[in-house]
Amino acid sequence: MSVKKLGFKKMDLKFVVEKLQQMAPLYLAESWDNVGLLVEPSEPLQTSSYFHQVKNIMLTNDLTIPVLKEAVEREAQLIVSYHPPIFKPLKSLTNKTWKERIIVECLEHKIAVYSQHTAFDAINKGVNDWLIRCFDYSSVQPIKQSLEPFTTSATHHLNIRIPLEHCEVLQDLMKIPYVFCTDISTGSDAQDVRFRLPLSAVSGIMAVLSKIPGVVPSLLKLEPLPIPGSGPGRICFLKKPLSLSHVVDTVKKHLGINTLRVAEAVGSTPSSQVSVVAVCAGSGASLLLGVKADLYLTGEMSHHEVLEATHTGKHVILCEHSTSERGFLLELKERLECELVDVCVFVSKNDKEPLKYI
Fold first, then answer.
1. How many helices (H) and strands (E) does the chain have?
2. pLDDT by residue (tens digit) across 285-312?
3. Dihedral of the CA atoms 116, 120, 123, 125 (nearest 10)?
4. What is the pTM of this model?
5. CA of 121: how far to CAs of 37, 169, 348, in Å?
6. What CA–CA distance (Å, rounded) separates 161 from 53?
7. Is 70 helix (H, G, I), strand (E, B) or coil?
8. Which of 230, 277, 24, 285 is nearest to 134 (CA)?
9. Alpha helices for the chain (secondary structure H)
10. What phi and psi values does residue 124 have, to the nearest 5 degrees?
């Protein structure tokens, strides 16, 4: 059955993508990730100013064959997939593998695909913040802090004290490419000047300054500013300590599941108290191991990673990879409905955790 379209209009894919990137900037994603617009349908070549039109947006955690079939039946023009369906480079687009077949069918049915993955993990009020919402905590912070990207090629500050009798040199310095003067202070005998510049411009600066004896510039590396509340993972400090068994029940209720995999810290019991919880949606070992906490909550860890955690005093709760992420889609749906009032946004019914207990 197709999505009911009454009252909905079409939007340019470009506009929708801009809204998605405002919501979760792609620079927040991990360097190894593959995020952004991954599939963009085309129109006939004679259409010079074409933008793919979007009326129905389907949200999913994983873009699988059943999910794609649902997208076609419900006439979606855009799939926002938390996990990128193209991760490793594809060498061909054939019907040999299910991942290739998905991309081929998306193009055939004029369905665009967008993924934000670890950008959603890092944003404030993102996937990891949703995962810890079941706890009553006094404070929370990212495990790894996200930093503002540099908006120019400048990576360093250069401070120079130029004697007034040589102040004409300042004009020569300002002519060097990618060198920007950010501050000038004039004293009784000299000018104190600050520049922003890439490291590659330092040699040009020194060549100009060689004309002035005794001038020694001071070079400082620019440090990117932290983005408040953003970054992979979360550490939350509970208002009141909870027993491990209470934490397990709380997580089950939040995720809407009946079973969890739980590993107790060596020498502890289900009544052991938990005051600090570290979480990482998905596969969290690389981020969590070594973090000071009473309990690690994530989707999956290997056998040996669990042993490492429990032998260093941490409980471990594993709720399966996509189960630790999928519930965020309902919040994403609400946000997109506020931002994109003219399109229909719905969550896939066929998107499921592949593992189940039998």
1. 12, 17
2. 999 999 999 999 999 999 999 999 999 9
3. 140
4. 0.83
5. 18, 49, 20
6. 57
7. helix
8. 277
9. 13-23, 65-73, 98-108, 117-122, 127-131, 169-174, 202-209, 244-255, 285-288, 303-310, 323-326, 328-339
10. -65, 130
